[in-house]
Amino acid sequence: MELLLLQAHKSMAATTSVAPSSLFRSVTIRNCSITRNQKQQQKLRPCSVARSISSHSRLQAVAKAKEAAESGAPTLFDKIVSRQIPSTVVYEDDKVLAFRDISPQAPVHIIIIPKDRDGLTQLSKAEERHTEILGHLMVTAAVVAKQEGLVDGFRVVVNDGVQGCQSVYHLHLHLLGGRQMNWPPG
C-alpha cells in the first residue's frame, strides 16, 4: 500500500499545483478514508484520487481479513493473545486482553479484546450468548481508564464493518483519552 501511495503521490505532484509534502501528508494521516459525500469523489481533487487509490487497496485488504476471520483463521489479535505477536499489555484477565495501540490516535489509546473470539468478528454479529463478554469488555474499559488516570473522561469506540472503518475482524474496543475529544467523531 505504501508503494501505491508513493506512486500516486509522485504522479499527483507532477500534475497539480499542490505542494507534494501537503499532498502526501493529507493522504497518510487518515488511512481510513471512506467518503460520506459522493459529490466529493466526483470532484477528483488530487487528495481524493490518492485517497480512493489507498481506499481501494485498504478495502481489498480488509475484505481479505474479514473473510479469513469469518472462516476461523487466526486474526492479528488472536496472534497477540497467543503471544505470537508482541504487544504492550496493560491489563489481562481470563476473558480479555488490553494493550496499547501501535498507531495511537490519542495520548492514551488502548485496544481491549476478548481472548476467545467465539464468532464475534464484529459487533453486528453479536448474539444473546455474547452478552456476558460484551458487558465484561465495557467494565474492563472502565477499569483500564481508571488505571490509566483518565479521570476527566474518555471515549470508547467500536468500529463495525467497512463503513465503520473496521480493519481487524475480531471484535475490539478502542479506549481513547488524555485529550479533549471532539464531536461529531467521524
Can you walk me through this structure?
The protein is of the alpha+beta class and 186 residues long. It has two domains: 2-70; 76-177, HIT family, subunit A. The chain has helices at residues 2-15, 20-28, 38-43, 46-70, 76-81, 131-147; strands at residues 89-92, 96-100, 108-114, 154-157, 173-177. The protein has a five-stranded antiparallel β-sheet with strand order 1-2-3-5-4, covered by helices on one side. Helix 1 (2-15) packs antiparallel against helix 2 and helix 1 runs antiparallel to helix 4 (46-70). The longest helix is centred in the first third of the chain and has 25 residues, at 46-70. It is globular and about 40 Å long. The two termini are 23 Å apart. The model is unreliable at 1-53 (pLDDT under 50). A motif (Histidine triad motif) lies at residues 170-174. This is HIT domain-containing protein. Residues 76-186 form the HIT domain. InterPro entries: Histidine_triad_CS (IPR019808), Histidine_triad_HIT (IPR001310), HIT-like (IPR011146), HIT-like_sf (IPR036265). It comes from Sphagnum troendelagicum.
Quick overview:
With 186 residues, the protein is α+β, with helices and mostly antiparallel strands.
CATH class of the largest domain: Alpha Beta
Overall pLDDT = 77
CATH superfamily of the largest domain: HIT-like
Structural class: alpha+beta
Beta strand count: 5
CATH topology of the largest domain: HIT family, subunit A
Known CATH architecture of the largest domain: 2-Layer Sandwich
Number of helices: 6
Sheet with most strands: 5 strands, antiparallel
Give the tally of structural domains: 2
Could you list the spans in which at least 5 consecutive residues all have pLDDT below 50? 1-53
SSE order, one letter for each helix or strand:
HHHHHEEEHEE
Proportion in helices: 40-55%
Our measurement of the CA-to-CA distance between the termini, rounded to an integer number of angstroms, reads 23 Å
Strand content: 5-15%
Write down the overall geometry: globular
